[in-house]
Amino acid sequence: NIESFFGIKNLFFISGFLPGIMFICMSFLDGIYSIIILVILAASIKSLRTPLISHYINNEIGNENRATILSTISMFQRLSILIFNPIVGHICDISINYAILFLGIFVVAVCIILKKFEKFLLA
User: Fold this and answer.
1) C-alpha to C-alpha distance for 114 and 27, rounded to whole angstroms
2) Residue closest to 11 by CA, chosen among 116, 119, 115, 123
3) How far is CA 8 from CA 4, 24, 85, 93, in A?
4) CA 69 to CA 13: how far, in whole Å?
5) CA–CA distance, 101 with 22 (Å, rounded to integer)
6) What is the pLDDT of residues 7-33, one digit of tens each?
7) CA 9 distance to own-chain centroid
8) Which stretches within 27-62 are classed as H helix?
C-alpha cells in the first residue's frame, strides 16, 4: 500500500510537489513526446489525491459536518479557478511556457508553504 509506505501527510505533499516539478520541467522542454509523458505522469500522480482526500475526509470528519466541509472545499476550488484562469490566460498570451512555469512554481510554493505549516493546519 502506497499510503502506508509514504504516510498520508507525505503522500499529500508528494502528490502535489511532483506534478509541480514536472510542470516546471515541461516549461523548458521542446519535444512533444516528452511533454506528453510528463503531462500523463503529472495527471497520474495528481489523481492519487482524490481517493486519499475522500478517504481522509470520510474518516476524520463527522457526518454532521461532512457536507459543509465538502461544499467549502468545492467553493474554494471554484474560487481559485475564478482567480487563476484570467491570470494564466494572460500569461499564455505572452508564452505558454511561461504559463506552465508559473503554474509549476505556484504549485511547488504552495506545497512547501503547506508542508511548513502542516502541524498548525492538521492540529
Assistant:
1) 24
2) 115
3) 7, 25, 30, 38
4) 21
5) 10
6) 777 888 888 899 999 999 999 998 889
7) 14
8) 32-46, 49-60
Copy the grid coordinates of residue 9: 501527510
Angstrom distances, CA of residue 31 to CA of 13, 38, 66, 98: 28, 11, 44, 16
User: Rounded to whole angstroms, how far apart are CA atoms 96 and 102?
Assistant: 10
Amino acid symbol at 78: R
Burial of 92 (0-12, 13-18, 19+ CB in 10 A): middle
Cell (9 digits) for 4: 502506508
State phi, psi for 30 to the nearest 5 degrees.
-110, -25
User: Whole-angstrom Cα distance, residue 91 to residue 11?
Assistant: 30
pLDDT tens readout for residues 60-83 = 888 888 888 889 988 999 999 999
Half-sphere exposure of 59 (CA within 13 A, CB side): 7
Cell of 122: 492538521
| 26 within 8 A of 100, measured Cβ to Cβ | yes
pLDDT band at residue 6 using 50, 70 and 90 as cut-offs? confident
